[in-house]
Structures are given as C-alpha cells and as structure tokens.
Amino acid sequence: MSGEKPSNAVGGDDVVALPSPPDLEVTARPRRRSFTAAYKAALLAELDGCQHSGEIGAVLRREGIYSSSVAKWRQQRRDGVLAAIKRGPPARMASAKPATDDETRALRRENAKLRRELEVAQLAIDIQKKVAALMEIGLTGSDGEP
Question: Which domain of life is it from (predicted)?
Fold first, then answer.
C-alpha cells in the first residue's frame, strides 16, 4: 500500500482534459432567422405526416420553431403565397426609354430657370424681413409709446 497513490492524488499518468468554457460574448445585434420556401414546405410536409400524440411538438422543439410560425406558413400555403416567396431587394424597374439629348437639355434649362426664380423669391423674402424689422423699430418710440 505504500506504493499506491490515493484516488484523489494530483499528477500521474491520468490526465483529464477540461472542456473549454462556453463563449459568453453577446453579439452586438442579433440576426433574425429567415427560412426559405423550400424549408417551410418540407417542414409542413413533415408536420402533416405526424401521426402520434406529441410528434408535432417534438419536431417544433427540434427545429426551434414556434407554433405561430407554422400557423402562418400553413395560411401562406393555403393562399398560394408560400411558393411565390422570394427574398432580397425588389427588382429594379427598367425605364421605358433613356432620356435623349434634347430632353436632357430641356430639363437643364428648366432647372436653371427654376433656380433663378428661387433666388429672386429668397431676395424678396429677405427684404420683407428687413422691412418688418425696421417697422418694429420705427413703431416703438424711445419712451415705449406708439
């Protein structure tokens, strides 16, 4: 017994690797999960094939899906929208025809004309503000009586 090590002795040939601690870092902005139409259809087919009590719940827990999502997907399937779901930005509308040089010149002339009119209107507004300020000074005398 003198050559035996106690069962709680440290060291020796029995090395046990400890698992690494879980990453506790929280992402700055969580991403919403998105499901493809094919995934939704396959999951609905699997749920429709469930025969026994508790199978649907087991599938939903396994996939991490809420029953409200399944209800919405079933409604989409009934309405025929599920097959037409496409993700991504909407397609750009191509213009009917590109602007010609004549149209471009006309639009530039109109733009310049409108800019000149805007400058004149701004000058008129500035003058009105100054006149209003002068009239207020002239209306009230130094003693405060009109």
Answer: Bacteria
**12 close to 5: Cβ distance less than 8 angstroms:** yes
Residue appearing with tokens 């919403």? 32
C-alpha to C-alpha distance for 39 and 35, rounded to whole angstroms: 6
Helix or strand run (H / E) with residue 133: helix 101-139
Give, in degrees to the nearest 5, the angle at Cα 15 between 10 and 16. 105
- Confirm if 66 and 60 have CB atoms less than 8 A apart: yes
Nearest to 37 by CA among 86, 79, 88, 89: 86
pLDDT tens-place string over residues 16-34: 666 777 676 766 777 788 8
Alpha-carbon gap, residue 49 to 55, rounded angstroms: 10
N-to-C CA span, the chain: 118
Name residue, tokens 């709680």.
8
Q: Crossing angle for the helix pair 37-48 and 67-79, nearest 10 degrees?
A: 100
Report in angstroms the alpha-carbon separations of 92 from 58, 81, 86, 95, 100: 43, 21, 14, 9, 21
pLDDT for res 119 = 95
The answer to whether 139 and 146 are in contact (CB under 8 A) is: yes
What does the chain come to in residues?
146
